[in-house]
Specification:
The chain is 4% helix and 43% strand. It comes from Chryseobacterium lathyri.
Length: 134
């Protein structure tokens, strides 16, 4: 199992278990959604095998992968393998999930722009069958 200790930000708080499965994730908010910039930025660390539920963002989302190996998948499309340096642009309303591979921690910076259109709408968990069939 690969582990990385290259995070420049604090680990943060445990992410809500209701929205993550397969392990634990931690979120450290770098830029709260509290001003006229209409943007929230967080650093998210996933344990191996951890992923978030299917969800969408009313204002879209940008992921910047900083360490480990992970996945990003849009509903009805094949999953993409993610590595450090990858950037994923997610359009508003696209149903998707992201998380760590089974054998690697995974860290990304999540940028939620246009928060005046909503930050996140959570849906059902990614099933073990969906995850294991990647």
């Amino acid at each position: 199992m690969e582990t990385f200790n290259t995070n420049i930000f604090p680990k943060g708080e445990k992410a809500p278990e209701a929205y993550f499965s397969g392990g634990t994730a931690w979120v450290h908010i770098l830029k709260p959604n509290e001003d006229d910039l209409n943007c929230q930025i967080g650093n998210v660390i996933f344990e191996p095998g951890c992923r978030n539920n299917w969800h969408s963002h009313g204002g879209g989302q940008i992921l910047i992968v900083t360490s480990g190996t992970g996945f990003y998948q849009e509903k009805g499309k094949p999953a993409q393998v993610l590595h450090p340096g990858d950037v994923v642009n997610i359009l508003p309303g696209i149903i998707h999930w992201h998380g760590a591979s089974a054998d690697s921690e995974f860290t990304h910076i999540a940028i939620n722009p246009n928060t005046q259109n909503g930050i996140v709408e959570w849906m059902e968990p990614v099933s073990d069958e969906e995850y294991n069939n990647l």
